[in-house]
Structure formats: structure tokens, C-alpha cells
Amino acid sequence: MWDKPNILNWIANVLFAFAFVLFMYGALFIVVHLPIFPLNEVRVEGELKHVTREQVKLISGRYLQGNFFTVNLVKTREAFEKLPWARTVSVRRRWPNRLEVVIEEHQALARWGNIALVNTHGELFHAASDADLPVFYGPGDGVKEVAEHYAEFGQLILPLKMKLTEVTLTPRRSWQVTTNTGMVISLGREKMDMRLARFMQVYSKTYAGLKGDLKYVDLRYPSGFAVRSPMALAAFKPVAVAAEPKEQSQHNGKSELKKKLAKKHQLKKNKAIKRLRSLM
């Protein structure tokens, strides 16, 4: 091999290239870890209503380690995603010394029972809110379905200035809604939109002008519906009549009997007088 200069030159070139790569890597490693590329600014963008400046400072101080080149973007993004109101997070470097964080917050649509909130995408998230929100009930796999039907049902009752306060999807996929007037509407498992739209048309022409709100409406009939209202219940409510005291009732009975006997005696007396006059 030593008498073959071509092979020796090739080996020398390979070793030189390998040494150069190691040298460049080491130099680059040292340079990027020098404190000459610090992160001087963390800019958080997005329409933020619930993510606070204190939360951003806390995450920046705890998870942003390193300089502009060495900061771990994946861990930084995961840290911001742990915020209760953060739905999506993206993190980017901006030369020369800035980190840009874009946060999309959840927009609360309703409550999922008393365990979580539902956003406008039909997703569950856990956060605190004191807003007056409707309440959804249903199986665990029906969150998005309930959110979509909530929007559809809400549009149908909106012309009558009503709002939905509860939407329930039973395990048998039967629907029931409650309005802000306290009216409970059973929609069944099929043709819910058509049934609700038909009832709203009838309601606007008839029941809307009546005194007393409807309490329950059953739309599960193929060609009609049933309603229940306080006025209807009052019409069938039994009325209690006070009974007369027993002694007073007996006294009244005796008085009536005496009157009848006296009248009968007077008739007999009159007849006797008439006979005597006829004989005279």
C-alpha cells in the first residue's frame, strides 16, 4: 500500500475532510452557545382575552432556556399549550433576538354538564368561566354533534327572540332542548329541524299571543304535536267546595219538614171550611 501514492492521497483527503468537518462543528457549537445571541424578546400574538401577561412571563422564565439558536421550540410550544384557554400554539424564531408565539384561544360555546367547557369547534376543554352559557348533555362521543345541532336549532327559534339554554342528546340519540322561557321541547331522533321549524310557525301564529308560557312540547308525532301549559292544567284542576256543618244541615232539614207539615195542615183546614160553607 505504501508504494501506491494514489491510495495514500485518497486516504489523506478523507482524513482531512473529516477533521475539517469536526473542526467546523466544534466551532459552530461554541459560537451558538456563546451569550452573544440572547433572546431579548418574547412576543405573544393573537386575540387574547384569557391568557394573561403573568402566565406568559411564568412560562418564559421556566421553559425558555438557551439563546436564539439553542432554545427548544417544541418544548416551548408544549408549555404554552398547557394554558387552559390555549387551543393552538405556534412558535417561531425572528432574527436577531426575538421569539414569536401565536396563540389561538378557545371560544367558549357552552358547558358540558358540570365537568368541562365546549368551544365553537365542538371540542372539550377545561377552564374556569363565569359566563352565562348554555348547558349540553350527551354521550362522550357526541360533543361535536351536539354543538352543531345547537347552532341549527338556535337559528330556527331566533326569529321568536328565544334562546336555547339546554341541549340534550340521549344515549338512544333522541334530542331535547330547553329555551330561555322554560319551554322543554322533545324533538325525537329524526327530522328534528323540520319538526322544530313546523312548530315555530304554529307557535308564532297561535300560542305566542296567549297568556302563560308553554312548559312542554312533544314533537315526536308524525303529523302533529302535544303541548302542556299552566292554563291547560288549571282548566282541569278540581275545585274544592266547602261542606255545611252537620248540625246546621240537620236543623235545616227539620225546618223544611215542619214547613211542609204546617202547609199540609193548612190545606186540610181550608178544605174543611169549604165543606161547611157548602152545607150551610
Question: Whole-number average pLDDT?
Answer: 81
Distance between the termini: 185 Å
Give the overall shape. Answer: elongated
| Radius of gyration, in angstroms, nearest whole number | 44 Å
Task: Label the structural class.
Answer: alpha/beta
- Strand order within the widest sheet? 6-5-4-7-8-9-10-11-12
**Helix-strand string:** HEHHEEEEEEHEEEHEEHH
Sheet-strand content, in percent, reads: 15-25%
Task: Give the proportion of residues in helices.
Answer: 40-55%
Number of strands: 12
| Biggest pleated-sheet summary | 9 strands, mixed
Number of H/I helices: 7
Low-confidence stretches: 235-249, 272-280
Concise summary:
This protein has 280 residues and is α/β, with parallel strands linked by helices. 42% of the residues lie in helices and 22% in strands. Helix 2 packs antiparallel against helix 3 and helix 4 runs parallel beside helix 5.
Overview of the structural elements:
- Helix 2 (53-63) packs antiparallel against helix 3 and helix 4 (143-157) runs parallel beside helix 5 (192-205).
- By secondary structure, the chain is an alpha/beta fold.
- The protein is 42% helix and 22% strand.
- Strands 6-5-4-7-8-9-10-11-12 form a 9-stranded mixed sheet.
- The longest helix is centred in the C-terminal third of the chain and has 34 residues, at 246-279.
